[in-house]
Amino acid sequence: MSNICQNTLNTASPDVRQAAPPEYQSAVNDTFFRKEVAQAHSDQWMGTIRLAQPMSVRIVAGFAMVIALCVLAYIFFGTVTRKARVTGMTLPAGGSLTISAMNPGILTRSFVTEGQAVIAGQPLFEVATERQGSSGEISMLVAQQLTIQKNTLASERRTRVAQHRDKASAIDERLVNVNAETLELDQEIALAQRRLDLAKSSLVKYETLQGSGFVSAAQTQQKQEELIDLGARMSTLTRAKLQLQATKLNLAAERTASVGELDNTMSQLQRSEAIVDKDIAENHSRRTSLILAPQAGVVATITYRSGQAVAAAQSLAVLIPQASSKQNMEPLEVQLYAPSRMMGFVATGQTVLIRYQAYPYQKFGLHRGRIVDISKAPFAPNDLPPHLASTILSNALQSMPGVNSNEALFRIKVQLSRQSIDVYGVAQPLPAGMTLDADIVQDRRRIWEWIAAPLLAATQR
Q1: Are strands 410-416 and 420-423 parallel, antiparallel or unpaired?
Q2: Does the keyword Transmembrane apply (predicted)?
Q3: Average pLDDT across the chain, whole number
Q4: Left (φ > 0), alpha (ψ -120 to 50) or beta: where does 199 sit?
Q5: Higher local confidence (pLDDT), 445 or 247
Q6: Cα–Cα distance between 278 and 172 in angstroms, integer?
């Protein structure tokens, strides 16, 4: 009964607890305990005070403890990754070739289509560069004059060849006559030599007979005179032979000189014809010019159609070089362009997380790559590839705050882990020229290390 009364007093107000019944107080006062004990019993005559603890308080405390442990575990085991966000696009690993117009004009013919494989030297486009004057199309008039010049040179060539042929024929005839005269003269000389020998023998006989007294001195002298006449005749014939030999040498030299003169004339005519042919080719190029494929590959993009006007150095198409006979196109790589303030911790071998703009990463996920090359110097906007400069700069301005259109950008080459992307369960090859955003993973640390980094840095100073 006393316990029930004490519990009732515990839940009562303080005024009720202080006011104890007089009977109880008198009973306490009559005991043999000290006054302090009696006073304490008089203050707690209805029991001790106990605070109520509902079950909800315990549940909340338990949840708070679990959350605190989770936060501590996250701080201790969780990591913080430092990333650099840049933009870029997919391009062939071997690069791409820009097919440009050499002269301004009108694109008259296109011999290829997008996706077509071509070989080196194959015609791709034909550009007309005709100019009109008061008398008609200028290049046509120039072509007519150049044709007349070429015909004149050809006629002169034929004339000079005919002249040389006639002259050589005349020289050959004179050489034949000289050879015949030389042969006859040799015969006369042989006869004269025989007569001279006979005259010498006869003179010897006459001298012998004169010594014997059979002939007179006058007869012997006559024989001597005959011998002298024959010697003079022999000298005349010998001199004539020498003259014929000199004539023969002169004719041979004249023939050789004629051949040299013809060769010189032909060389001059060939140079003149070459100049005219060059002028004809240049004039033809002013009318139409063929643009050929510099090497084998696949035509990826054609930017102009037949009938459109093109400027000098204007890009007409993009050619992706052929990698091998078993592979139509080069494997793709990603080229990222970043300003200098993002290049402090970028290095080869770092992982790159790629988000293709054509495939939202929320649905198709992130794609991995690895940095394989970093340019040693930045590219000015004018140094960027002409057919990619506008795309690169616009993506950089949109995705990287603070970048201006005149800022130089470093090129980062990334090797892709896959050349395709899974689209609804189907592996679809990545096309060249796809724009993308990428995060370069530069550093990974524990959260507690990141929180304590300022303190650790301060202690190391």
Answers
A1: unpaired
A2: yes
A3: 79
A4: alpha
A5: 247
A6: 39
**pLDDT of residue 152 exceeding 60:** yes
**Taking the CA of residue 46 as centre, how many other CA atoms within 13 Å lie in the half-sphere pointing to its CB?**
18
Interval 76-128: pLDDT, tens: 777 766 778 888 888 887 777 888 888 788 888 889 988 888 998 899 998 88
For the stretch 183-236, pLDDT in tens is: 888 888 888 888 888 888 888 888 888 888 777 888 888 888 888 888 888 888
The span from the first CA to the last CA of the chain, in angstroms, equals 75
Helix, strand, coil fractions of the chain, as percent rounded to 5: 50, 25, 25
Please name which of 308, 271, 374 lies closest in space to residue 109, comparing C-alpha atoms: 308
For the chain, counts of helices (H) and of strands (E): 10, 18
Give the bridge partners for 117, in sequence order: 298
SS3 call for 294: coil
Domains of the chain by residue range? 2-43, 81-93+331-461, 137-277
pLDDT at residue 273 in the model: 87
**What's the pLDDT score for residue 383?**
75
pLDDT 10s digits, 295-352 = 888 887 888 888 888 888 788 888 887 654 344 556 888 989 888 888 888 889 888 9
CA dihedral angle for residue 384, residue 390, residue 396, residue 402, rounded to 10 degrees: 100
The Cβ-side half-sphere exposure at 303, using a 13 Å CA radius, reads 16
Q: Which helix (H) or strand (E) holds 178?
A: helix 138-212
Q: What is the DSSP letter of 378?
A: P
What are φ and ψ of residue 337, in 5° steps?
-130, 120
Asked whether the beta carbons of 91 and 414 are under 8 A apart, the reply is: no
Q: What is the pLDDT of residue 395?
A: 77
**DSSP output for 220-282:** HHHHHHHHHHHHHHHHHHHHHHHHHHHHHHHHHHHHHHHHHHHHHHHHHHHHHHHHHHHHHHH
Strand partners, 292: 123
Distance between CA 419 and CA 379 in Å, rounded? 27
CB count within 10 Å of CB 89 equals 20
Residues pairing with 413 in the sheet: 335, 373
**81-93+331-461: which CATH topology?**
Elongation Factor Tu (Ef-tu); domain 3 (2.40.30)
Q: How many angstroms separate the CA atoms of 125 and 290, rounded?
A: 6
Q: Does the global pTM surpass 0.85? A: no
